[in-house]
Amino acid sequence: MAKRDYSAYQQKVIKRYYDNREAIDHTKLAELCTTLYLATGKKRAKSWEAAEKAMTRIGVPAGRVKHVLDSDDPAELAKVVEGLEKGTLKLETNKRSAEPQKGEPGA
Questions:
Q1: Which among 31, 59, 70, 85 is least buried, having the fewest CB atoms inside 10 angstroms?
Q2: What share of residues in the chain are helix, strand, coil (percent, to 5)?
């Protein structure tokens, strides 16, 4: 894949996105929680996949992520969101960095 040359403005937008990635993922999890209460079929499966990715990026412990996914209960995801908002959920310290990864814009 050819390396893209981004304008200075585009570089700033990309940097701000990755600087705020954790907050974006918190918001996304809260939205997914609501979606999961109402979704069925393929949309529900896709929403659970998105929730797994967001929880992993944020640094939710793998055991907790597995528990939430195995339960298939939006209420368990809501508990994770609540823990994140209150700051009571202990996050893994070796989570993925907020820097762009290979294949992502800005990499």
A1: 70
A2: 65, 0, 35
Return d(Cα 77, Cα 58) in angstroms, integer. Answer: 14
Q: How many residues does the chain have?
A: 107
Task: Please name the residue that has the structure tokens 């294949």.
Answer: 103
Percent of the chain topping pLDDT 70: 85
SS3 state at 79 = helix
Q: For residue 98, name the pLDDT band (cuts at 50, 70, 90).
A: very low
- The contacts of residue 4 (CB under 8 Å, 6+ apart) are 105
Written as one letter, the residue type at 1 is M
How many CB atoms sit inside 10 A of residue 77's CB?
25
